[in-house]
Design a protein that fits this description.
By secondary structure, the protein is α/β, with parallel strands linked by helices. The chain is built from seven helices and five strands, in the order E-H-E-H-H-E-H-E-H-E-H-H. It has a five-stranded parallel β-sheet with strand order 2-1-3-4-5, sandwiched between helices. Helix 1 links the parallel strand 1 and strand 2.
Protein backbone atom coordinates (compact mmCIF):
# COMPACT_ATOMS: atom_id res chain seq x y z
CA UNK A 1 0.00 0.00 0.00
CA UNK A 2 1.42 3.37 -1.04
CA UNK A 3 1.87 6.07 1.52
CA UNK A 4 -0.35 9.08 1.24
CA UNK A 5 0.63 12.66 1.96
CA UNK A 6 -2.15 14.79 3.48
CA UNK A 7 -1.46 18.53 3.21
CA UNK A 8 -3.78 20.88 5.09
CA UNK A 9 -4.31 24.64 5.12
CA UNK A 10 -6.31 25.63 8.20
CA UNK A 11 -7.02 28.88 10.01
CA UNK A 12 -9.61 28.01 12.67
CA UNK A 13 -8.63 24.34 13.02
CA UNK A 14 -11.66 22.89 11.20
CA UNK A 15 -9.77 21.61 8.20
CA UNK A 16 -6.84 20.44 10.32
CA UNK A 17 -9.32 18.42 12.41
CA UNK A 18 -10.58 16.62 9.29
CA UNK A 19 -7.03 15.98 8.07
CA UNK A 20 -5.97 14.70 11.47
CA UNK A 21 -8.99 12.38 11.53
CA UNK A 22 -8.07 10.94 8.10
CA UNK A 23 -4.45 10.48 9.15
CA UNK A 24 -5.41 8.79 12.44
CA UNK A 25 -7.54 6.27 10.56
CA UNK A 26 -4.69 5.53 8.15
CA UNK A 27 -1.37 5.14 10.01
CA UNK A 28 0.54 4.96 6.73
CA UNK A 29 -0.49 8.56 5.95
CA UNK A 30 1.81 11.52 6.55
CA UNK A 31 0.09 14.72 7.68
CA UNK A 32 1.66 18.15 7.01
CA UNK A 33 0.53 21.72 7.26
CA UNK A 34 0.54 23.50 3.90
CA UNK A 35 3.12 26.04 5.07
CA UNK A 36 5.49 23.16 5.97
CA UNK A 37 5.06 21.61 2.52
CA UNK A 38 5.62 25.04 0.97
CA UNK A 39 8.95 25.41 2.79
CA UNK A 40 10.07 22.01 1.53
CA UNK A 41 8.10 21.23 -1.65
CA UNK A 42 10.49 18.38 -2.51
CA UNK A 43 8.58 16.32 0.07
CA UNK A 44 5.65 16.22 -2.36
CA UNK A 45 7.79 14.39 -4.92
CA UNK A 46 8.13 11.41 -2.56
CA UNK A 47 4.40 10.63 -2.74
CA UNK A 48 2.20 9.55 -5.63
CA UNK A 49 -0.96 9.92 -3.49
CA UNK A 50 -1.63 13.43 -2.19
CA UNK A 51 -4.73 14.68 -0.39
CA UNK A 52 -5.15 18.44 -0.11
CA UNK A 53 -7.40 20.01 2.53
CA UNK A 54 -8.24 23.68 2.81
CA UNK A 55 -10.70 26.23 4.12
CA UNK A 56 -13.15 27.02 1.40
CA UNK A 57 -13.50 30.40 -0.24
CA UNK A 58 -15.76 30.60 -3.28
CA UNK A 59 -13.34 32.93 -5.07
CA UNK A 60 -9.90 31.39 -4.64
CA UNK A 61 -7.73 28.77 -3.01
CA UNK A 62 -5.86 29.69 0.17
CA UNK A 63 -2.47 31.17 -0.79
CA UNK A 64 -0.49 28.33 0.83
CA UNK A 65 -2.38 25.73 -1.23
CA UNK A 66 -2.16 27.84 -4.41
CA UNK A 67 1.63 27.96 -3.93
CA UNK A 68 1.80 24.15 -4.07
CA UNK A 69 0.15 23.81 -7.49
CA UNK A 70 3.46 23.85 -9.44
CA UNK A 71 4.61 20.80 -7.46
CA UNK A 72 1.49 18.72 -8.17
CA UNK A 73 2.24 16.54 -11.17
CA UNK A 74 1.93 12.80 -11.74
CA UNK A 75 -0.24 12.50 -8.62
CA UNK A 76 -3.41 10.75 -7.58
CA UNK A 77 -5.16 13.60 -5.80
CA UNK A 78 -7.84 13.84 -3.17
CA UNK A 79 -9.32 17.18 -2.15
CA UNK A 80 -11.41 18.15 0.87
CA UNK A 81 -12.51 21.49 2.23
CA UNK A 82 -14.50 22.96 5.09
CA UNK A 83 -16.81 25.94 4.76
CA UNK A 84 -19.05 27.98 7.03
CA UNK A 85 -22.03 27.86 4.68
CA UNK A 86 -24.08 25.13 3.07
CA UNK A 87 -21.72 22.65 1.36
CA UNK A 88 -24.63 21.26 -0.66
CA UNK A 89 -25.57 24.54 -2.34
CA UNK A 90 -25.17 24.79 -6.11
CA UNK A 91 -22.86 27.78 -5.75
CA UNK A 92 -20.58 25.96 -3.28
CA UNK A 93 -20.49 22.76 -5.33
CA UNK A 94 -19.66 24.63 -8.54
CA UNK A 95 -16.88 26.66 -6.91
CA UNK A 96 -15.45 23.57 -5.19
CA UNK A 97 -15.43 21.66 -8.49
CA UNK A 98 -13.61 24.58 -10.09
CA UNK A 99 -10.99 24.58 -7.30
CA UNK A 100 -10.55 20.80 -7.67
CA UNK A 101 -10.09 21.12 -11.43
CA UNK A 102 -7.55 23.88 -10.91
CA UNK A 103 -5.55 21.67 -8.56
CA UNK A 104 -5.56 18.79 -11.04
CA UNK A 105 -4.40 21.18 -13.74
CA UNK A 106 -3.96 20.57 -17.43
CA UNK A 107 -1.17 18.44 -18.86
CA UNK A 108 0.16 17.61 -15.37
CA UNK A 109 -0.80 13.92 -15.44
CA UNK A 110 -2.82 14.23 -12.22
CA UNK A 111 -5.91 12.16 -11.48
CA UNK A 112 -8.62 13.31 -9.06
CA UNK A 113 -9.76 10.27 -7.10
CA UNK A 114 -11.82 11.60 -4.18
CA UNK A 115 -13.38 14.85 -2.96
CA UNK A 116 -15.29 15.95 0.11
CA UNK A 117 -16.80 19.30 1.09
CA UNK A 118 -18.27 19.79 4.56
CA UNK A 119 -19.47 22.48 6.89
CA UNK A 120 -16.95 24.02 9.26
CA UNK A 121 -17.09 26.42 12.16
CA UNK A 122 -16.98 30.11 11.28
CA UNK A 123 -14.50 32.41 12.97
CA UNK A 124 -15.98 34.96 15.42
CA UNK A 125 -14.54 37.59 13.05
CA UNK A 126 -17.36 36.66 10.65
CA UNK A 127 -19.90 38.57 12.76
CA UNK A 128 -17.69 41.66 12.94
CA UNK A 129 -18.41 42.35 9.28
CA UNK A 130 -21.55 44.54 9.06
CA UNK A 131 -22.96 42.51 6.15
CA UNK A 132 -22.86 39.35 8.30
CA UNK A 133 -24.21 40.87 11.50
CA UNK A 134 -27.79 40.27 10.39
CA UNK A 135 -30.37 37.73 11.57
CA UNK A 136 -29.43 35.50 8.62
CA UNK A 137 -25.70 35.92 9.25
CA UNK A 138 -26.09 35.19 12.95
CA UNK A 139 -28.14 32.06 12.16
CA UNK A 140 -25.45 30.90 9.71
CA UNK A 141 -22.75 31.52 12.31
CA UNK A 142 -24.64 29.64 15.03
CA UNK A 143 -25.45 26.66 12.79
CA UNK A 144 -21.78 26.29 11.87
CA UNK A 145 -20.40 26.22 15.40
CA UNK A 146 -20.70 22.45 15.97
CA UNK A 147 -18.93 21.55 12.71
CA UNK A 148 -17.10 19.58 11.62
CA UNK A 149 -18.98 17.16 13.85
CA UNK A 150 -18.74 13.37 14.21
CA UNK A 151 -20.99 12.85 11.19
CA UNK A 152 -18.84 15.16 9.04
CA UNK A 153 -15.70 13.27 10.10
CA UNK A 154 -17.31 9.90 9.34
CA UNK A 155 -18.35 11.15 5.90
CA UNK A 156 -14.76 12.26 5.28
CA UNK A 157 -13.54 8.75 6.05
CA UNK A 158 -16.16 7.32 3.69
CA UNK A 159 -15.24 9.76 0.91
CA UNK A 160 -11.58 8.68 1.06
CA UNK A 161 -12.02 4.99 1.99
CA UNK A 162 -10.92 3.76 -1.43
CA UNK A 163 -8.03 6.19 -1.53
CA UNK A 164 -5.82 4.42 0.99
Amino acid sequence: MAQTLIIVSSITGNTWNVGRHLAAAHPEAVLLRAEEAGKNPAVIDRFSNVILGFWFDHKSLPPDIEALKPFLHDKTLGVFATMGGDPGSEKALAAFASHCNGLVGENKNNHLRATYLCRGRLSPMYLKHPAHNTPEGIAKYESSQSHPDAEDLQKALEAFKDYF
